[in-house]
Design brief:
Distance between the termini: 35 Å
Oligomer: single chain
Number of helices: 8
Largest sheet: 2 strands, antiparallel
Radius of gyration: 24 Å
Order of helices and strands: HHEEHHHHHH
Strand content: 5-15%
Helix content: 40-55%
């Protein structure tokens, strides 16, 4: 485990200069970040030791953590089986949810209830690295098709019938599909993650 390298003298000097303790550039934020990462590494070691099936470390993922001390990027460790979920971040998520309920629970009780009951499903998204999450949430491909459609139809005053419109849109799809053959960014890395999280489901489609 890496020992914290918090500079107490520099912190005292910054405090005397009137700098904030928390926040993005807070005096204590680097220490909290380093201690949190050390705690997650210790959690991973314990998790690997308790696993029945063979498992091992699999690098780390950059993850944004928000707390009263500020928002910062954490190097969150991963395991190869994809079963490791740091309890420290889960506890933090519960505390954020608790604060949300305290403020808005009376006005939006069903929203809070839904958030709590569906959190295991919602949080599954965060088990993937950033390069896998981006294609999941992005709508760039759909928006590109919409732009192609608008480009074709915005200069037309009208169409003789529905079929004439459909023919034009079909031609637009053919044009847009030319770009769909381009290589997918980080596809090999993405494929490796899918193979970890969904074992044996890819074998009948591709050769790993």
């Amino acid at each position: 485990m890496t020992k914290p390298t918090f500079d107490m003298d520099a912190a005292i000097k910054a405090l005397r200069e009137g700098k904030d303790l928390s926040g993005k550039d807070g005096i204590l934020t680097p220490l909290i970040k380093q201690l949190t990462e050390a705690a997650m590494r210790a959690e991973l070691e314990e998790h690997l030791a308790s696993e029945d099936k063979p498992n091992r470390k699999n690098g780390h993922t950059s993850k944004t953590m928000k707390s009263s001390a500020g928002s910062f990027e954490l190097d969150t460790p991963r395991d190869r089986a994809g079963t490791f979920e740091p309890q420290i971040t889960q506890k933090r998520q519960t505390q954020l949810t608790d604060e949300l309920e305290a403020k808005w629970g009376d006005k939006y009780p069903m929203v809070i209830k839904s958030w709590r009951s569906k959190w295991p499903t919602l949080s599954a998204y965060f088990k993937y690295p950033e390069y896998v999450r981006k294609p999941i949430y992005t709508t760039n491909a759909v928006e590109a098709v919409h732009r192609q459609f608008r480009k074709l139809t915005k200069t037309k005053g009208g169409f003789a019938n529905e079929n004439s419109l459909l023919k034009l849109l079909y031609a637009g799809i053919l044009k847009a599909s030319e770009r769909w053959t381009h290589p997918i960014q980080n596809w090999n890395l993405t494929l490796s993650q899918l193979a970890i999280h969904f074992p044996e489901r890819l074998e009948k489609y591709i050769s790993l």
